[in-house]
Amino acid sequence: MSTRLPIFVGIVLLFTVEAVSASPRDGEDALFSEQANAHHDHTVILLHGMGRGRASLWLLDTRLQRAGYETLNFAYAVHSYPIEEIAAQLCAFIAENVETRTYHLIAHSLGNLIIRSGFAVGYPEGLGRIVMLAPPNRPTELARALRDNPIYKWFTSESGLQTTSDEFYENLPVPDVEFGVIAGKRGQAVLLQEPNDGVITVESTKLKGMTDWVVVPHAHTFIMNSRDVARLCISFIETGAFVQLRDEADDIHAVVNDADDTNIDKQLGE
């Protein structure tokens, strides 16, 4: 048996490490509804990651709606099209479905590469801010290790193979609007030696030009289910920065990109 099959199985098992409740916690209504009427003229479009579906973003979607945002879920078939074609579908989806003057994008994992590719297509007018959750902003070590594995190739198709290519990343646009990156650090040390979320390294989430960057203690697959991550998403959409309350600073570690002029340390009171 190929030695890469057990590795692939191990990665699949990692996807179940941080499963959380499928319903919001008690008391969250007040937390996310304080400004429920303040954002009715803003739409947030959500993109899932590889091997997932719209249901994977249900909890984040619900919290955004409770905060007053209109939401849309863009579903795509990763097995059927290359990333560039999916990006074109995303732009068409936005043009056909967004009814507010301003819209924002939040994506998990592979969905962020689709967003980036969309800038080569051209987004409809009204794009505000972007939040990237656990984005593989450079070729990932695990994807490269598995790219010749037949199960991985079947599971990810052409889109998955693109994420192993230096040439693909060299041609991938960087957003020309404000965007923030949320990286997870609840990983493993078996297949990845650097700090990681179980699938990609913390360092590989960085992208030149990002407005803000924050590391949270969550794993890759379920990072979007965190209440704190939802609050970070909302704060960035509203202010262009990841703002957290001081009593949450011990659990969420904000790290500012040295090249960017942000003030999150002051906002945290550190």
Textual characterization of the structure:
Helices cover about 35% and strands about 15% of the residues. The chain is built from 10 helices and 7 strands. Helix 4 (about 85-95) crosses helix 5 (about 110-120). Helix 5 links the parallel strand 3 (about 100-110) and strand 4.
Report a brief summary of the structure.
This protein has 270 residues and is of the alpha/beta class. 35% of the residues lie in helices and 14% in strands. It has one domain: Alpha/Beta hydrolase fold, catalytic domain (Rossmann fold, 3-Layer(aba) Sandwich).
Kindly state the percentage of residues in helix.
25-40%
Report strand %.
5-15%
Contiguous runs where pLDDT drops below 50 for at least 5 residues: 7-23, 249-270
Q: Calculate the terminal CA-CA distance, rounded to whole Å.
A: 52 Å
Largest sheet: 7 strands, mixed
Read across the widest sheet, the strand sequence of neighbours is 2-1-3-4-5-6-7
Question: CATH architecture, please?
Answer: 3-Layer(aba) Sandwich
**What is the total tally of β strands?**
7
The CATH superfamily is identified as: Alpha/Beta hydrolase fold, catalytic domain
CATH topology: the name is Rossmann fold
Query: Based on the structure, what is the oligomeric state of the protein chains?
Result: single chain
Q: Which structural class fits the helix and strand makeup?
A: alpha/beta
> Helical segment tally?
10
